[in-house]
Write the structure tokens for this entry.
Amino acid sequence: MKQLLSGNEAIALGAYHAGIAVATAYPGTPSTEILENIARMEGVYAEWAINEKVALEVGMGASYAGVRTLVSMKHVGLNVAADPFFAASTTGVVGGLVIISCDDPGEHSSQGEQDNRHFARFAKVPMIEPTNSQEAYDMMGLAFDISEKFDTPVLFRSTTRISHCKSVVDVTKERSAELKKAAFKRSPEKFVMVPSNARIRRVAMEERIAKLQDYVEQFPFNEMIIADKKLGVISNGVAYQYAREVFKNASHLKLTTLYPLPVNLIKKFAKEVERIIVVEEIDPYIENEIRQLGIAVEGKKFIPIIGELNPEIVENGAVKAGILKSASSSAKTEPPTPKLPARRPQLCAGCPHVATEYALRKLGVRTVGSGVELSKNDIIVTSDIGCYTLGVYPPLAALDTCACMGASIGQALGLEKAGVSNKIVAVIGDSTFMHSGITGLIDVVYNQGTTTVIILDNNTTAMTGHQGHPGTGISAKGERTTAVDIEALVKGIGIKDVNVVKAFDLKAIETTIKKCVANNAPSVIIVRGACPLATKKKGTPFAVDADMCSGCLDCLKIGCPALTIADNLACIDAEFCNGCGVCSQVCSSDAIAEGKP
Amino acid sequence: MRDVNVLMVGVGGYGVILASDGMAEIGMVNGYDVKKTDSLGMAQRGGSVVSHVRWGKKVYSPMIKKGEVDFLLAFEEIEAARWASYLNPKGAAIVADSVVIPVSSVTGDTPYPKWDAIKVILSQYSDKIYLVPATKIAEEVNNPRAVNMAMLGFLSAFLELPAAAWTDTMRRRLPAKFMKSSIDAFLKARAEAEAAIRAKEHK
């Protein structure tokens, strides 16, 4: 049956038909929909793990019990899970274990760009990568076969344009009714990695790669298309699709086994064609491997190393390489386009983060601008990964750092211990705090830091589309579970100054921040307010009384998309307004109130 | 079977993704090879949204090459201007009468241009510019969320599939609550487009 499926939907369905019993993940764009889809399927245990490291450790346990297991994450998630990833490579598996890494070339929704193909070679784990949804579906079954046959986890790589592209899939398989039952068999030489056992497994890892070398030569989704022999294009992933579109007459080699590479197939292709160009996103991974084989190859000379590719970038590369005369249409000189107003990502109307970010900006972040020295009273705000990171943009411009999951708290302690005299506040979301903020907070307590940590508790993982986390008490399957109590948790860690304030009470937020930063001990402020997109509740819109509005436009400084200007006065778009009322608390003329005309 | 490249652009929360999903599905059901992909950025709401939808005999790239867009379907006026350079010279810009002023305009660094100025930008790339009364149609059918269905209806008049090919899939896919208003919006806009096409031919 033909279905229109995104890469992530195809991965989920492929894994389901391959008979997975357990699936774990931490949400992260562009990987999130894989587990969301699996969670809706019957007969699979699906969980949102606290973070990617734990997700993979749960996956290892399930695999040791003999059942097929899927673990999915975004590219930077594999950094977090790197420790168990290498460990799983060493122990090998029992039930098939497939780890999905969804890379995000061009950082559509990530703090950095990285090419996780290197992880496969680094950890000596076989890696396969589809070029469309059909292959994502079909190759998933093979991924589990490889894992079990070669006693290894398998890295299944996708990218944004595979995961988030819909294409036609012929769904040909179905889930077997008889799946293997879980059973753990003792095997300390395989599962207990004391050095003496690890040395034995180390040999098995190399033997495995040698066997895989033969296997990948026959892999059905590597494909050689011989046409015009003057040019041979080698590509993988979505870059293959761009290459087919741009190099219409050339010969092509499509690679779907990225580690190990099918060396003999590449050599065979090289003999057929006069010139080889590799089209691949991010690093010259394939290009360098081919060069090491002693084959003349070009690639990054023409194809950018930075960012996501697209057909015109590849076409421009073809022009540079002298293959196309001039890019067909895009190379024409374009008429000048006048400057259009930018539409930056922003916090939503009714967002529970707005009041806190506004309060921080107002209270302490007074000196704005790169390289400007802080004044004595400026508060330094270390931030984390989540919707609230958008508070870096004007008009809020309230944040000073954002690096990786959980980093805000450690960074705050580091700034303090280095001797910075300004007060420091770390801002972190509830889901991110669970993911990797807890350990940072323990470090603050143990090492006697005095930082104030604001936990923005909107009771969901909002940015990736509202997934549950341990604080929400709702499982990946939508069932009630034990909610981890954040207040009790931080008190248990040893924080004495624990405060809970309502997310839309600007005055209470300001007063509490002032009190906490003055305290010479570590403190936590839990700012609590649900994400309105998750609850789908719409409050009564507020309105501006034009007779009372002074036109100072201070209310616009909260950066709410429902606020606009009409005839030099503030104006609220009732269709957008969610009735949070933060703007009315900012107004010094009392001109904004609920439901007024 | 004609190849069709449609770039749908707009603002998050206005139904662009739903429209592009629908168009892709209708293409598949009617025998085309289909690919579609979106760029959303980080924002849940309010950011720029771009969807590429491609129908053809065989589609490779999910993204349409700059200069090869047959129809720029813009759900918002400045978003049309922002993506105008993607049009091929024979392509058409189909723009909803919808203005969503971004925060950067509200706080003042760049003013929001008037429709006439936007039209000047669009006309550098195409002489086929249609301003669709999509919000008016959505009001007429009493469903402010039906703007996207009106846009699909207007677009459909330029493509080779009959109206029934679209409404059949809509009947299967849309929730009962919005079914009638959505199909009404679709058909009203399709009729508007047919009239607009006839008017152009008469000139």
